[in-house]
Each structure stands twice: as structure tokens, then as C-alpha cells.
Write a structure and sequence with these properties.
It is built from no helices and 16 strands. The chain is mainly β.
Length: 180
């Protein structure tokens, strides 16, 4: 048995951002948690685990009105939801709808591309690396195929990351590139 976390997203037809976190247990039961003091309202955020599953990181996204640099780290060691606050932990650029994949044997998460605005008109060519030990953010590689959002990323066994597809404003991208 394991757990899946659902955080943020759009909760209704009016495109209102969801404000709760749900743990979906292996037996099909759902634990709903609404926290105070952290940003759970996220549309277009990326998520991944760092420190080989010690933390779940939710990065960037939008609260429905503005994009953010927020990073929320959480743990679920039992039946208790725990948020870990790391001083000054934030992305260097506001970012939503970016590609994310775990790298370095599950220690870190690499983010690629995304949009800086809610209208999804300003794309990013840059990446970021959320490091797990010690927890910090550093610049990541730039996308070789150009700026784009809504792309896919997958870690390859050769310590490279494959970034594929996505779009730049209203144009679909049909490129794939690997990045060290």
C-alpha cells in the first residue's frame, strides 16, 4: 500500500483553483486536508519527490490570478500531514505548466520551461533544479529547442533528461531534446 497526493488544480467550471490537499490511500479511502499558511491553491504546478521520497515538493503554478515562485515541501509519515518550511526556498522565476522529472537517483527534481503568466503567452527557455540535500534551488539547463510550456520531461538512465513537445503560446512544438 502506498499513497497518492492530489494538490491544487481546477475545482469547477468557473476555473476556480482548488484549495485542498487530498491523500488517496491504497484502500481507496481519501483523507482531505485544508492547511493554513501555505499555498495549496495551485493550477499548473509541478510536483515531485526529493531526497529519495522523503519530501513531496510542489513547485510554482498559479493561484488563478498570478503565477508564483512558491515551493511547498510536505511529508506524510502516517496519518498526519506535515509541512516543512525552508527559509528563502523559492523558484528564481515565476513558473507554471513546466515539465518536471526526478533526477540524480531521486535526490533532486529538474524543472524545464513553462509560462511566466496566467495567459500562457510568455514562455521560459530556462530550467531550475530543486536539490534535496541540502534543500535548495539552483539554475537548471536551458531548453535547447527553445522556450515552451506544457512539455514533457523524462529522466534517462544516462544522467540526461528528455524534453519533448509542448507549445509556445498558440503553436505546438514537435521537437525532442536531451539535456545533461
Amino acid at each position: 500500500g502506498g499513497r497518492v497526493v492530489a494538490l491544487g488544480g481546477i475545482k469547477n467550471i468557473s476555473l476556480e483553483a482548488a484549495d485542498s490537499l487530498e491523500w488517496i490511500n491504497s484502500d481507496g479511502t481519501i483523507d482531505v486536508h485544508t492547511a493554513t499558511g501555505i499555498s495549496e491553491r495551485r493550477i499548473g504546478a509541478a510536483a515531485g519527490t526529493i531526497n529519495k521520497g522523503e519530501y513531496i515538493a510542489v513547485m510554482g503554478g498559479s493561484d488563478g490570478t498570478a503565477t508564483t515562485t512558491d515551493i511547498t515541501l510536505s511529508q506524510y509519515p502516517g496519518r498526519t500531514f506535515t509541512v516543512t518550511v525552508v527559509a528563502n526556498l523559492a523558484l528564481t522565476e515565476t513558473r507554471r505548466d513546466m515539465a518536471a522529472t526526478e533526477v540524480h537517483d531521486g535526490t533532486d527534481v529538474m524543472l524545464l520551461g513553462g509560462y511566466t503568466d496566467n495567459a500562457q503567452t510568455s514562455t521560459l527557455p530556462t530550467g531550475a533544479l530543486l536539490k534535496g540535500s541540502p534543500v535548495s534551488v539552483s539554475p537548471g539547463p536551458s531548453l535547447l529547442g527553445g522556450a515552451r510550456g506544457q512539455s514533457c520531461a523524462a529522466a534517462l538512465g544516462s544522467n540526461q533528461v528528455l524534453s519533448a513537445g509542448g507549445r509556445t503560446y498558440n503553436t505546438a512544438v514537435s521537437k525532442a531534446k536531451s539535456t545533461d
